[in-house]
Amino acid sequence: MIAVAKPLERLASELSKLPGIGPKSAMRLAYHLLYSPQEQSTALAEAILSMKERIKFCPVCFNFADGDSCPICQDERRDPSTICVVESPSDIVPLERMGRYKGLYHVLHGTIKPTQGVGPDELRISELMSRLQEGKVTEVIMATNPNVEGETTAMYLCRLITPLGIRVSRLARGLPFGADLEYADDVTIGQAFEGRQDL
Ligand SMILES: [Zn+2]
After folding, report:
1. How far is the CA of 79 from the centre of ligand 1 (A)?
2. What tens digit of pLDDT does each residue of 52-70 get?
3. The whole model's pTM is what?
4. What residue ranges define each of the domains in the chain, with the CATH number in brackets?
């Protein structure tokens, strides 16, 4: 082990646990913070702590929220007749960046994975069904990822929702199979969205 002052080594070790940060980058970032003004480190440390303390799940759609419901559920210009179902809060980011969707969301927090013991009860499915039973929704768009688990979950939900007389659609196949929605580019997402098909 190279001789580095303990606090520096401790910070680098924590930073290297972040995705995409290897040991070298971690040490470079640690040195960067060491040489930067004190306020910068204080602001970073406080931002991390405040995020962990204040961010909760929106009680309506289970997106992340600061306070009661999330900014999307609170926005009265959003169309309450459409709900787009996604696996995780980070999937909302590319769909919002696309800018064409004006409805609401519902975050499942995972997909059905029978092999790993994740069944429908582990996901926010009963909460979705309660929202649909209020009778305002006319279309549910399945935007689960285009992989086996995503497809299985979309089909499972389709079987639950169709008897309620609600249209269920799925993002078109423009998204490469096995790709993550989170990393798809705006044009591909836009096309998949416009070309969505009924399930
Ligand atoms: Zn919400």
Report:
1. 13
2. 998 899 999 999 998 789 9
3. 0.76
4. 6-55 (1.10.8.420), 64-198 (3.40.1360.10)
